[in-house]
């Protein structure tokens, strides 16, 4: 069984044959990619640079890309404002971690378990269910905001972290990605596991999930980024239940004197998801290329 799985992995991730190009073509392609890469990275570099600029450099026009006099005053001011908050800042972090971890883990687990029968079993209504899942991806969050609020309100979950966690778990994007990825697993592999006496749960957790690792890693990254920056929206009103992004934005809302604090807040909110993405970007590209999403 292990040898079969290894052969599938080797076949799946083998390197493609290199396209023959001239050296001039390689240099041109590299220059184009470098130009687009620098253009894409410019906002990130500017955000990180602003966090270490003094106030006089923040208001220069045209703005400088890198700070001339590096300072940590923005972070010291932010720390002082956080220490004066009447709700302990650790409470905000706990709320964010609770929402992010439970929402991400629940979404990956539920989406994977729902995608497995859609990908590997034929039953009445299978095509209709997947069609509805695909159609649900076409609706913007603004369209579903009112129905979501009505459902959460009737469930009595207003002012409860579950108001953010449950919609995240029920997101249809994960079901789509996992189903598309699981369809590539040979049926013979699952049938041979059943012949060996493996149960459905064992097949799912020891064979299927390891083979679709790029897909569920991508789900973790995408949902982690979304939940990390949530501020509670129209579901959470209690100050003690607000996530850390809400607290940071409240601190940043002030006069022009807090421009440096705002820059520090932007940098802190950006650094965690960006770091997470940098170490996992190859998995994301691989998942979307295999699932057919553009």
TrEMBL record:
<dbReference type="Pfam" id="PF00528">
    <property type="entry name" value="BPD_transp_1"/>
</dbReference>
<dbReference type="GO" id="GO:0005886">
    <property type="term" value="C:plasma membrane"/>
</dbReference>
<feature type="transmembrane region" description="Helical">
    <location>
        <begin position="203"/>
        <end position="224"/>
    </location>
</feature>
<feature type="transmembrane region" description="Helical">
    <location>
        <begin position="259"/>
        <end position="279"/>
    </location>
</feature>
<keyword id="KW-1133">Transmembrane helix</keyword>
<protein>
    <submittedName>
        <fullName>ABC transporter permease</fullName>
    </submittedName>
</protein>
<keyword id="KW-1003">Cell membrane</keyword>
<feature type="transmembrane region" description="Helical">
    <location>
        <begin position="92"/>
        <end position="116"/>
    </location>
</feature>
<dbReference type="InterPro" id="IPR000515">
    <property type="entry name" value="MetI-like"/>
</dbReference>
<keyword id="KW-0472">Membrane</keyword>
<keyword id="KW-0812">Transmembrane</keyword>
<comment type="similarity">
    <text>Belongs to the binding-protein-dependent transport system permease family.</text>
</comment>
<keyword id="KW-0813">Transport</keyword>
<feature type="transmembrane region" description="Helical">
    <location>
        <begin position="162"/>
        <end position="182"/>
    </location>
</feature>
<feature type="transmembrane region" description="Helical">
    <location>
        <begin position="128"/>
        <end position="150"/>
    </location>
</feature>
<dbReference type="GO" id="GO:0055085">
    <property type="term" value="P:transmembrane transport"/>
</dbReference>
<dbReference type="InterPro" id="IPR035906">
    <property type="entry name" value="MetI-like_sf"/>
</dbReference>
